[in-house]
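User: Design a sequence. Structure:
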């Protein structure tokens, strides 16, 4: 039995898609755990590269990402209430906060560059650049999914009864949010 708005997705395929997304998120989590383990093992090699200004930028970025997740939760509530206008408004809010997070990460990198901290100069800063770049790539993919969901809502093609696309995007988004909070805590506590 195929859905009308997504003829290539059958009702039976949705649980398989959900499992695939959870497996991808587990693999992503293991990737970031391995990176932070390496970071913690090399922790004492270089000090003085993590400034209070960088910590403040990363804290603001974390707040943006949490706000984005809350906006996405609100969008799902509006979809369940069958309000596509409210869904679209909150999806665009989540998208805006997510873009703000990426802009904030670019600002964090810029603050390191202007302070003379580069990948090759400090071993720990190299891990910072690697971890934040990897997270940014994952987040950019999630932003593209979020934009796709928003475009479907804008065109009136986001069906509340079959909200699998919103659900899968939410799983990815919230996992990235939790991953960033973990990374932020590791970076702040082990600077």
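Assistant: Done.
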């Amino acid at each position: 039995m195929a859905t009308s708005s997504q003829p290539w997705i059958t009702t039976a395929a949705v649980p398989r898609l959900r499992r695939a997304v959870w497996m991808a998120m587990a693999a992503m989590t293991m990737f970031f755990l391995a990176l932070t383990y390496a970071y913690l093992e090399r922790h004492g090699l270089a000090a003085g590269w993590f400034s209070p200004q960088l910590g403040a930028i990363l804290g603001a970025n974390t707040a943006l990402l949490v706000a984005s997740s809350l906006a996405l939760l609100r969008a799902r509530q509006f979809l369940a209430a069958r309000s596509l206008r409210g869904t679209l408004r909150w999806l665009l809010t989540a998208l805006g906060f997510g873009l703000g997070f990426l802009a904030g990460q670019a600002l964090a990198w810029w603050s390191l560059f202007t302070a003379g901290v580069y990948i090759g100069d400090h071993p720990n800063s190299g891990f910072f650049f690697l971890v934040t770049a990897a997270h940014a790539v994952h987040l950019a993919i999630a932003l593209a999914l979020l934009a796709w969901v928003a475009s479907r809502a804008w065109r009136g093609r986001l069906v509340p009864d079959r909200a699998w696309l919103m659900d899968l995007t939410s799983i990815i988004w919230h996992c990235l949010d939790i991953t960033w909070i973990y990374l932020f805590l590791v970076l702040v506590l082990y600077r």
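The domain at 52-189 is CATH 1.20.120.80 (Four Helix Bundle (Hemerythrin (Met), subunit A)). The chain has one domain: 52-189.
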